[in-house]
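Worked example 3. Consider a protein that binds 2-phosphoglycolic acid.
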Amino acid sequence: MELHIYKDAQAVSTAAATLIAARVIGQPDCVLGLATGSTPLATYRRLIELYRSGVVDFSRVTTFNLDEYRGLESAHPQSYHHFMQENLFRHVNVDRERIHIPSGNGDEDAVCRTYEEQLAQAGGIDLQLLGIGRNGHIAFNEPADHFPAATHIVELTASTIEANRRFFDSAEAVPRRAVTMGVGTILRARAILLLAAGADKADAIHAMVHGEITPRCPASALRLHPNTVVLLDEAAAARL
Ligand code: PGA
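Given these inputs, the predicted complex is written out as C-alpha cells:
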C-alpha cells in the first residue's frame, strides 16, 4: 500500500484526477471502477475539465460502479445511477453502452450474478476508485465477520444510514438495503486508488494502515492487494 499525503482535499482530488486521466490516456479502452459519495466529486469535476480541454477522451472506456441502493428507481435523485449521470457521465463522452451500475431493482440473486458476469466479460477492472467510510467500510461492505467475496446484497448499518441521511428528507427515507461489489470483487481490480479527506476519516485510515487485517475494518483487506495507492489530506492522515 503506497500512501501520499497532500495539504488539502483539493490537492487530493487533483492528484486522483491526474492518475485516472493518465490511465485513460495510456490505456484508452481501460475498465474503470467508479465510486459515489462526497469524496470523489471534486475528482470528477477535474476529469470533466480535462475532458473539456481535450486532454482525455472517455469514448472507449468501460465503467463499473461499486454499488447502488436497493429499492430506488434509477431516476431517483439519490440513486447512484442518478449521481453518476449528474456528476460525471452526462458531462463526458463515455459510451452509455459501456456504463455498468448494479441494478437497484429486480431479482437480487440475478442482479448480483449478472454484475459479476459483466465484470468477467469486460476482463476485470484496471483501476478501481474508492472512498472509505468512517467505520472502515469500502463500497457498502460494512464491518462484518468475513470478507464478502463477490457482489452481494447488504443491510446497511445504523452508522451508514446516519451518514447518508443528509441526502434524504429523513433517516426513515434512507434505503435499508444495497447491492455492492464484495471485498473480493474489489481486490480483483488490477490497481486501486483510495481517497480520503477530513478529520472524520482519520480513525478509519489509521485502522486501515496500522490495524489488524480484519473484516471488522473492511478497508484493511486492501493491504493484501499488490497495487493500492492511497491519497490523503493532512487531516485524514493525522493519526498515521
Ligand atoms: P464519503 O463516503 O465520500 O461521502 O465520505 C465514502 C464512503 O462511505 O465510502
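Take a moment to read the result before moving on. The longest helix spans residues 9-26. The CA atoms of residues 198 and 236 lie 5 Å apart.
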